[in-house]
Amino acid sequence: GVRLQIQLLPVGQQASGSELDFEPLGEGEEGAAGEQMEEPAMEPAAEPVQIAEPVAAAAPTSAGTPDRPAVAPAPSGVTATRLDAVEVLSAGGGAVIRIAGDGEFPYSTFALEEPERFVIDLQGVINRATRPTVSVEGSVVERVRVAQFKPYPQPVSRVVFDLRGQSVPVIERTADALVVSFPGTSVKPAAQAPVTPASDISQASRGGAVEIEEEDAPEMPRSAAQEVQVTPASSAPATAQPSDLALAQPAPPQSRPQSQTTSVAPGLPVQSFEAKAVGETERVYVGEPIDLKVTGADVTDVLRSFAAISGLNVVVQPGVTGTVTAELENVPWDQALEQILKINNLDYELDGNVMRIAPTEVLRKEAQEKQQLAAAKALSVPLRTVYQRLSYADAAQVARILKQGQSSLLSQRGSVVVDRRTNALIIKELPQFMDSVISVVDLLDSPEPQVMIEARIIETTKRFNREIGIQWGFDGIASAATGNTTGLIFPNNADVAGDVNLGGNATAGVLSLRLGNVLNTFQLDATLRAAESEGLITILSAPKVATLNNERASIQSGLQIPVQTIFNDTITVQFINATLRLEVTPQVTAEGTILMDIDISKREPQFAFLVQGSPNAPIATKDARTRLVVRDGGTAVIGGIYKVTADAGETRIPGIANIPLIGHLFKNRTRREENEELLIFITPRIIKL
């Protein structure tokens, strides 16, 4: 892969090859370059040191001057947003290359010379190609390189064709690709770039700019240098635009314990960088993956290497110091930069293509001051006054919402006055906030739906009673008058009577039997009583009430029963409600269903259960309180009570009642069953206006 290597050498040691020596003059070995320079390479002057951006080429030459970009007509079909692959359809003298995507590509083109290159920029396209470099054998096209040139605000994918000679392509746009055809041409051998020794750099000798000679540097002993290795994971597109590295306050030469030697390989891109707020931590990293190995390096030296990679102009706040020790592998360069800044309590702000690096606290204070200044400017404009009349909402309630404490929807200078006569608001607010306030008022003034709620209370009582009993009686007389004395001196006369009453309260069916002798001195009476009753009672109560959305409504009907209370010989009369009452608060949801808070009660006096000596009748109460959701026009059972009472009894004469068959004549049986059922239904309906 392409490799960027920064080596930090001990004072006085020079590197060979195409490395750039930032060593202060007078401290290292004397050379040809040193004889030409009288000033130190890094002056503490205000003028920035400019580093010309290297470009991707077959040989280390100048970037060339691009032609004026040619912009293709806008696509007529679906515009592409993704570059999927670059394919070589044919090669052999000429070449036909297909750039595939998910639609028609909007693009612009330009050409570069020395060496020959042809560049296509795809606007609004994200690079998803798996092969960053495609080699072409035996053709005027040497290779094709693909990279994400600009990720935002509008992404741009760049396709660079490295040519072996001059060739003007023909571009054909299809529904999902660009087909680029290069005609064959004579290929000139590339001129071999001469190897030049390392040369010191000076603003005076180079007109204020630092030129970078590109050549592989020889391997240096590990013991003699600390090494910063930044290796992009793939080749990147070329560019003809230079980037400036501006150091706000470079360290003086005598303060540096080591000299700096920079070796830059060709092909490093000018990349975009994402601006962020100070202190922001979550973002998507889009930089090219790099490998970074550094031990105890000065933070400004490391930042200089990132400036070369990103193509951004870097300005470092005076007083920024620190060292970096890190070993990263295959990490996006923008993520690596943020981590290095974080460990040194640094942050950055981006203005165009200029990145300013300063302590985090300094940037945070500056951001706060900018916000305060912007807020003060925004508050200084004249107020705007609007008279807003309301149709459905209460103006006073809307005003309370607008002015509600710390959550006020008005600015510091905003105010609202209520005109109760016309139910209107007089709003004074800054022009930039007035539209949002009016939109909130319009939302609050929207008509509320009305809801009709109908409840049904159904009470059912079923009773069954059965009673079977018998009553016995006899009367026997023995006397001289009837001629049937006992024949004894004592007792000579006798009168015996008996009664067995097991008939109960049954009166519906009575069968009586009386038996006696001829003289009527002995009589036997028997009465059989049997009764059975069955009853069904149904009570339907249906209260109904209508109300607005989120407004409570109630309705009741019944009696107020006077209740006397005596306290300290003082009689007080209170009235107790014995009514049927429905209280409900509906809320219409966004789905069209109705959420309700329901309270239903029914209270009835029970005069049959009056306590003797008390004029106050007990009150039977049936209540239901609940909260539920019902669809519009639907019916729901909100509650019910089912009560069953079963009672069986037997009255008998001991002993005789246990005699089989005959014992039934000495028993009384009762059976009572009572079933009570209470059901409550609720049906809400939205009233259509």
Task: Describe this structure as you would to a colleague.
With 689 residues, the protein is mainly beta. The protein contains seven helices and 38 strands. The radius of gyration is 53 Å and the shape is elongated. The model is unreliable at 1-66 and 186-272 (pLDDT under 50).
Most strands sheet: 7 strands, mixed
Q: Which strand order do you get reading across the main beta sheet? A: 15-2-19-1-17-20-22
The chain-level mean pLDDT equals 75
Number of helices: 7
- Termini separation: 74 Å
Which second-level CATH architecture of the largest domain applies? 3-Layer(bab) Sandwich
Question: In terms of structural class, how would the helical and strand content be classed?
Answer: mainly beta
Strand residues, percent = over 45%
* Total number of domains: 5
Count of β-strands: 38
Q: What structural keywords apply?
A:
Ribosomal Protein S8, Chain: A, domain 1; 46% strand; Immunoglobulin-like; seven-stranded mixed beta sheet; 689 residues; single chain; mainly beta; 11% helix; elongated
How do you describe this structure in short?
The protein is mostly beta strands and 689 residues long.
Topology summary:
Layout: E1 4-10, E2 20-21, H1 32-36, E3 49-51, E4 70-71, E5 82-92, E6 94-101, E7 107-112, E8 117-123, E9 126-127, E10 133-135, E11 141-150, E12 156-163, E13 170-173, E14 177-182, E15 199-200, H2 203-206, E16 209-210, E17 226-230, E18 243-245, E19 258-264, E20 289-298, H3 299-310, E21 313-316, E22 323-332, H4 333-343, E23 346-351, E24 354-359, H5 360-379, E25 384-389, H6 395-402, E26 415-419, E27 424-429, H7 431-444, E28 450-478, E29 494-502, E30 509-516, E31 522-541, E32 544-548, E33 553-567, E34 570-588, E35 593-605, E36 619-631, E37 636-652, E38 667-687
Parallel strand pairs: 2-15, 3-16, 5-9, 21-24
Antiparallel strand pairs: 1-17, 1-19, 2-19, 3-18, 4-7, 5-6, 6-14, 7-8, 8-12, 10-11, 11-12, 13-14, 17-20, 20-22, 23-24, 25-27, 26-27, 28-29, 28-31, 28-32, 28-38, 30-31, 33-34, 34-35, 35-36, 37-38
